[in-house]
Amino acid sequence: MTLGCPTWDLETILKNAKAYGYDGVDFRGIQNDLDITKMPAFTTDLNATAKRIKDSGLEVSGISSSIGVCDVDKRQDNLDEAKRTIPVALALGAKNVRIFGRGDGNNKTEAAKVGLECIEQILALPGANQLSWNFETHDNWIKSTDCTLLLNVINNPAFGALWDIGHTSRVGGETPEQTYAAIGPRIRYLHCKDAAFDEAHPHAMPKGIDKGWRYVIPGTGQLPLEKGLRLLKSKNYNGWVLFEHEKRWHPNLPEPEVIFPAFIKWARPIVG
């Protein structure tokens, strides 16, 4: 995911991803632009960019958007972003669009109804049904019981779940087995990042649900990443495994030149 290399341009992203042994790229911004659907490379120059990526030998695994389907006040913003995202994803051959749940965390039943209305409007847009709109286990929708509520209300094959193993275990307090039992059949995409709890560490996060945790090189932390990956493999999961290195949000994290190869070295023996 390009979130982990916020200073790299497109050429550097493609060159290094291939050199490090990655199969694809998920776009969450490039340099100063968080939303690639507003960049010339992905608008007026979209076809040339698509060819450039294909010629590099990489696929585009997905587009990571900022859409929050259960946020009633952001409905038009969500639809506008979806309209921009669809042609980009289709031209790049990306099957996945990451979205968020968000909305009213105190009344998830009503929030889910808002999410249903939003998804129905998004899926009515030309080309939308050719993509998988995957909401991340994030913000108000981390516990699998809550995620199941939203998935049951939006029972559409074009709507799935993006499982962030770190969120469901570290924040939701669930084992991978518990999460998979609840949402397994709807998992379309996977986020991996590792973390360790150490309140005394200078890079420990200072507040909120992340307080006391810090992100570390995959395989060196306390999160059940390997257990989750092996569980998915045993269930014949054939989607993408995405390394989400949050360098854009946390500048103190390891440089992409260091941690991107480290993730491949750790993950390849597990996922193949």
What does this structure look like?
The chain has helices at 10-20, 46-55, 75-92, 108-123, 144-153, 165-171, 176-183, 225-234, 256-271; strands at residues 24-27, 59-68, 96-100, 132-136, 159-164, 187-192, 194-197, 213-216, 240-243. α4 (108-123) packs across α5 (144-153) and α5 (144-153) packs parallel to α7. With 272 residues, it is of the alpha/beta class. Strands 1-2-3-4-5-6-9 form a 7-stranded parallel beta sheet. It has a two-stranded antiparallel ribbon with strand order 7-8. It contains 9 helices and 9 strands. β2, α3 and β3 form a beta-alpha-beta unit. The longest helix is centred in the N-terminal third of the chain and has 18 residues, at 75-92.
Short summary:
By secondary structure, this protein is α/β, with parallel strands linked by helices.
Bin the helical content.
25-40%
The CATH H-level homologous superfamily = Divalent-metal-dependent TIM barrel enzymes
Report how far apart the termini are.
19 Å
SS-based class: alpha/beta
The fold-level CATH name is TIM Barrel
Shape: globular
CATH architecture: Alpha-Beta Barrel
Beta strand count: 9
Radius of gyration: 18 Å
The proportion of strand residues reads: 15-25%
What's the order of the H and E elements? HEHEHEHEHEHHEEEHEH
Largest sheet: 7 strands, parallel
Low-confidence stretches: none
- The total tally of domains equals 1
User: Tell me, what is the CATH class?
Assistant: Alpha Beta
- Average pLDDT confidence is 97
Strand order, sheet with most strands: 1-2-3-4-5-6-9
